[in-house]
């Protein structure tokens, strides 16, 4: 029985358990299979980088207070964070990598940079 390449359907020569005729076909086949999950990861990472860039640009001194409107104006996505830190007093800091923010009163945010 002659086996066919899963990607290009050409005859396969070699080992009996071989599935592809070449590395090119193997890579092409696997890239097609993983395309959707890779796109999700790529898009999420791009949005996280954008959030990080916004916080970095607004927080030039390492600690800054800013209004929620300024974050919204720059299209900051409050749903995307990488971690949180809750203090002993119960305050929760939200982080995008090393840049973080703490919601204060009256829609003011404290931007901080983790050392």
Question: Notable features of this structure?
Answer:
22% strand, 115 residues, alpha+beta
Mass-distribution shape: rod-shaped
Query: In total, how many beta strands?
Result: 5
Strand order of the largest sheet: 1-5-4-3-2
Q: Low-confidence runs (pLDDT<50, min 5 residues)? A: none
Strand content: 15-25%
Structural class: alpha+beta
Distance between the termini: 63 Å
* Overall pLDDT metric: 94
Q: Can you walk through the features of this model?
A:
The chain has 115 residues and is of the alpha+beta class. It has one domain (23-113). The protein is built from two helices and five strands; from the N terminus they run H-E-H-E-E-E-E. The longest helix has 36 residues, at 23-58.
Give me the secondary-structure topology:
Blueprint: H1 23-58, E1 63-67, H2 68-73, E2 83-86, E3 92-96, E4 99-103, E5 108-113
Antiparallel strand pairs: 1-5, 2-3, 3-4, 4-5
What is this entry, summarized?
This protein has 115 residues and is α+β, with helices and mostly antiparallel strands. Helix content is 37%, strand content 22%. The protein has one domain (23-113).
């Amino acid at each position: 029985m002659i086996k066919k390449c899963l990607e290009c359907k050409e005859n396969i020569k070699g080992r009996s358990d071989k599935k592809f005729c070449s590395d090119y076909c193997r890579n092409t086949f696997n890239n097609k299979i993983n395309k959707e999950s890779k796109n999700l990861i790529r898009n999420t990472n791009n949005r996280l980088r954008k959030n990080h860039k916004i916080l970095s640009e607004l927080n030039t001194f390492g600690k800054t207070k800013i209004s929620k409107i300024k974050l919204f104006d720059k299209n900051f996505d409050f749903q995307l964070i990488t971690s949180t830190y809750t203090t002993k007093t119960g305050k929760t800091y939200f982080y995008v990598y090393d840049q973080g923010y703490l919601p204060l009163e009256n829609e003011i945010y404290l931007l901080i940079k983790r050392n």
